[in-house]
């Protein structure tokens, strides 16, 4: 695929500082309506995480599980710099975001991009247009999506509202996920893509899922 487009954007400035700077601009110019550029950095790394009394080494973004919350306003440009520090390939999908003429940021491995290989980086760069509400992002390479996901909040433009009455109370996003109690996710990776068909199991014999492969590792 050649050099990923985003690599040319790589800079050394702290994204946190840039985000704070963007926030400061918002505070001092409350009537500003033009879209801002929101910068985030994803360091994808193995992290020991404990849930339900079980500690496992799983892929995380910046050591967080679920991953960090991204916040933009409608019309903003979102720039997410991904560094893959794992030995696994990965890519990221911004679920529900309309990638208008911007398919390179959509994220499905081997559909719109080759995956980011271990040690590699890629910058997802897109503008959120005509959408507001809470969506989510997730990894789009085989089973990695089980661990790598987080909320993506799109606020309305300043001075505009959501297309529903103001709620009585606002809660932070609640992420639901699965926590695999058995095995390690990496043993699934070799047959992860075929596992994806399990969700299509149907009532007819011709729609039933195939039995597990004979080389399915024992737990
Ligand atoms: C996770 O914990 C194990 C066992 O304590 C340790 O060997 C390993 O280095 C830890 N991994 C990380 C990424 O911290
Ligand atoms: C990782 O990506 C590279 C490039 O697409 C591919 O050659 C390799 O087979 C991938 N590795 C896995 C485990 O899928």
From TrEMBL:
It comes from the Eukaryota. PROSITE patterns: MULTICOPPER_OXIDASE1 (PS00079), MULTICOPPER_OXIDASE2 (PS00080). Residues 1-35 form the signal peptide. One of its GO terms (molecular function) is oxidoreductase activity. Residues 43-157, 177-201 form the Plastocyanin-like domain. GO terms for cellular component: extracellular region. The keyword Repeat applies. Its main location: secreted. It is found in: Secreted. The keyword Repeat applies. InterPro entries: Cu-oxidase-like_N, Cu-oxidase_C, Cu-oxidase_fam, Cu_oxidase_CS, Cu_oxidase_Cu_BS, Cupredoxin, CuRO_1_LCC. Keywords: Copper, Metal-binding, Oxidoreductase, Repeat, Secreted, Signal. Belongs to the multicopper oxidase family. This is Plastocyanin-like domain-containing protein. It comes from Oryza sativa subsp. indica (Rice). The lineage of its organism: Eukaryota, Viridiplantae, Streptophyta, Embryophyta, Tracheophyta.
């Amino acid at each position: 695929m050649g050099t990923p487009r985003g690599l040319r954007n790589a800079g050394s400035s702290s994204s946190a500082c840039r985000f704070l700077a963007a926030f400061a601009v918002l505070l001092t110019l409350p009537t500003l309506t033009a879209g801002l550029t929101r910068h985030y950095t994803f360091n994808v790394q193995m992290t020991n995480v404990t849930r339900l009394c079980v500690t496992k080494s799983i892929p995380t973004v910046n050591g967080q599980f679920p991953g960090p919350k991204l916040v933009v306003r409608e019309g903003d440009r979102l720039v997410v710099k991904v560094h893959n520090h794992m030995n696994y390939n990965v890519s990221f999908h911004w679920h529900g975001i309309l990638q208008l003429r911007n398919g390179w940021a959509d994220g499905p491995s081997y559909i719109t991009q080759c995956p980011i290989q271990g040690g590699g980086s890629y910058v997802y760069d897109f503008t959120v247009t005509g959408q507001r509400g809470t969506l989510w992002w997730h990894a789009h390479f085989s089973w990695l999506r089980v661990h790598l996901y987080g909320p993506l909040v799109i606020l309305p433009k300043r001075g505009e509202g959501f297309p529903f009455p103001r709620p009585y109370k606002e809660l932070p996003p609640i992420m639901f996920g699965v926590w695999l109690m058995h095995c390690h996710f990496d043993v699934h990776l070799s047959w992860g893509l075929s596992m994806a068909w399990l969700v299509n199991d149907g009532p007819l014999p011709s729609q039933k899922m195939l039995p597990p492969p004979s080389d399915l590792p024992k737990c």
